[in-house]
Amino acid sequence: MTDERTWFGQPRGLTVLFLTNMWEQFSYYGMRALLVYYMTKQLLIGQAQSSFIYGTYTACAYFTPIIGGVIADRYLGKRKAVIIGASVMALGHFMMAFEPLFYAALAAIAIGNGLFLPSLPSQVGDLYRRDDPRRGWAFNVYYVGINIGGFLAPLICGTLGELYGWHYGFGAAGVGMVAGLLIYLSGQKYLPVEQPKPNAAEAGARTGFDRHTILVLLGIGLCVTVFRAAYEQVGNTVALWADSGIDRAAGAYEIPMTWFQSLNPLFVMIMTPPLLAYWRRHIHLETRASLIRRMATGALIVGASYLLLAGVELLSGAALAGWAWLALFFLIFTFGELFILPTGLGLFARLAPPHLGATTVASWFLVIFSGSLSAGLIGTLWSKFDPAAYFLLLAGIAGLAAILLRGMSTVAEPSRPEKVSAEAD
């Protein structure tokens, strides 16, 4: 723990974790902005296979944290796991610059991510006492870091890759990962002191998981798995539509297709402060159930954003749609995302028992794994549907997730009602 505060009244360690995460996300989203275009345009892989590879890769990148979280909690510790994971990911990003190493590079990034991803956010909670009201709010601050990196990545990596050569874009992603690693190494003294790893007997006695909590986590996980099948299309089939179905002309200039992927994180940064201010005013009303209802609202809003795209396609007919419609889609889409994803991560981190922080956060990434895999399968349908019907399908998937989450909210409370800070999202 530390009482030093430098940013929004938060410990200095949060700044270190924020910046480390920002640059890691820059590298991830920089590579992701290029991936499906690189496969279809440079490697000449068919659309259906490219979408499936994209989905499989993102799924694997979120499956390895399940194993990595256990390794971090039981053997390496969180700091060593972050350092090793970041190093392996940086290597993988640089390998992407060489076509023969394509699959090996994807594997390296996924493996490194397995150690890095659960170990970094679980340190956010370790900066605070468990009853510190700032603890939950810190995850929204942390989520902004994700989106600053995600905003810069398509503008820098995407522009380099699209205009000057794919390998320059992948190389820039590698540089971002190295920057994150150096920040983390230089800020070690501000990070929380790691607790001694318990032996097997202590671990079994101190898990703190009760049956109801496990069922709540599993239920939320199932709902978010369904949601992410639609959500993850922004880097997959929606990116393909931005290339083929959108008039990207802005006067005499044509907007690079990768730039649209910066709109989502840009809107996250703009919308997060007012949403946080609103939720903080209602802190006394928040419970597990109300937070899950908030997630259901988010899924419904995301479904509405896909309904918008379906309507635009129907109205446009054979003509290309104006790029402003895609910008409006991202505005609505992002508003819904802020209701569901940071809220879910905050709930998983809050319900984590002592000594199992990385493991519990890793279970959230298991949800992203299953959701990404299902998104890859849904993405293979892009060439089999007309765009309007496909976007209607995505709206239906997001709507189903909303219905499931509303159902979950009715059984989410423990036998003794427990208040949950609005900042726990």
UniProtKB/TrEMBL annotation:
Pfam families: PTR2. PROSITE patterns: PTR2_1, PTR2_2. The keyword Transferase does not apply. CDD domains: MFS_DtpA_like (cd17346). Keywords: Cell membrane, Membrane, Peptide transport, Protein transport, Transmembrane, Transmembrane helix, Transport. The chain crosses the membrane at residues 12-31, 51-72, 79-96, 102-120, 141-161, 167-187, 214-231, 259-279, 291-311, 323-349, 361-382, 388-407. It is found in: Cell membrane; Membrane. InterPro entries: Dipep/tripep_permease (IPR005279), MFS_trans_sf (IPR036259), MFS_Transporters (IPR050171), POT_fam (IPR000109), PTR2_symporter_CS (IPR018456). It is a multi-pass membrane protein. Belongs to the major facilitator superfamily. Proton-dependent oligopeptide transporter (POT/PTR) (TC 2.A.17) family. This is Peptide MFS transporter. It comes from Sphingomonas brevis.
